[in-house]
Amino acid sequence: MPDDSSLLRAPRHTAAAVPPKLLLVAQSYWPEPAGSAPMMTDLATAFAAAGCDTTVLTARPNYPGSRVYDGYEGGEQDRTVVDGVRIERLTTIPPAGGGLKARLLHEGVLHAGFASALARGRVGKHAAVLSLCPSILSVAMADRFTAPGGRHVAIVHDIQSGLAGALGMGGKAAVRAIRAMERAALNRADAIVVLSEPMRAVLRNLGVTRPITVIPPHVDADAVHPLPRPDQPPTALYSGAFARKQGLEQVLVMARHLAGLMPDARVLLRGQGGLEEELKAQAQAMALTNVQFSPLAPKERLNEALAEGDVHLVPQRPEGAAFAMPGKAVTILAAGRPFVSTCLPGSALAVLEAEIGAFLCTPPEDPMAMAQGVARLLADPARATAMGRRGRAWVEGNATRSVALDRYATLLTGD
């Protein structure tokens, strides 16, 4: 266990000058409440608040559901300004069911719209461009939006070829095609950002030769901060998308084990997505009386909602852990709460656990081990509180919006 005082020795950061104008190309953005959207929204608004003329090119919001949000379907809000950020939205066909064909249709339609926006002059070329993967098509399109002599920084949240192969999405030929597209698109960027060292190693093995910087997910640590525990039963909370890569089926089995270990505890699953009805049906078939489902909390209630979890849950399917880093982990740490994750030795979360001692890692596909970890923390509030303090200290030194803003600004200006 690391000494608490060591966590307060944050690296020194010198504020970098932001570029005068910035274009962010990403398929997900506010008001989408899960996935990469919250972090990218916070980054864009941070640039705007620092005096940068910031534009976001994105889709009509739909994630993590399977349809465009109410009020956006007809293009009523395709051109808006929110928190100083100009948002340009394009039509898309949300992927129903999460299969590869549905995802390709979704991304293909959206990025054809991006190309049309450039051709028509709706959004012009910029000297500073940030793109986000997923989707790799956003990275490829961002290159076309980069002015001669400008800088394009690609942020890789998910390595799509790795996730597609690990999760059985598409055949080997499809995975090879995505891998080739990733290699070509990323090698045209001026710099690449990944969320963990394992992700950097995967990209190098993929044949990516451009400079790669590790910048962990960040959070607005002023908006997300520790709150007192509400008066409620002991609660283990999952909050986020109900998607295949999370491995949420093991959480239901964990809940059954937890009922035997701690009968008064509840498991709250807060979210939405393609697996929602399937998970609810499984919970009903398993007669899990300690499991509750609820919708994702709106942004203005996020901090309060995070406080409802005495212990949070960050499940992952092990085969995809090297290709993605759960941003929700950093948000939970900012809220001063511990979590229990499923991950393999050497993965990004396993390395972070050893560094800061603010959460527990349990073996993937071992719901009993996960239940035992949850029960230990629920039964020992003093230990959970100490872990929460260590996590908060790490966030303040390494993953605030000001730290992230400085590092991204440096990459974009080439300083």
Automatic annotation (TrEMBL):
Source superkingdom: Bacteria
Ranges for domain Glycosyltransferase subfamily 4-like N-terminal: 35-217
Alphabetized Pfam families for the sequence: Glyco_trans_4_4, Glycos_transf_1
Keywords of this entry: Transferase
Sequence ranges assigned to domain Glycosyl transferase family in this UniProt record: 227-394
Gene3D superfamilies: Glycogen Phosphorylase B
Keyword Ion transport: no
InterPro entries reported in the protein's UniProt record: Glyco_trans_1, Glyco_trans_4-like_N
MF annotations from Gene Ontology: glycosyltransferase activity
PANTHER family registered for this protein in UniProt: GLYCOSYLTRANSFERASE
Name this polypeptide is given: Glycosyltransferase WbuB
Organism encoding this protein: Azospirillum doebereinerae
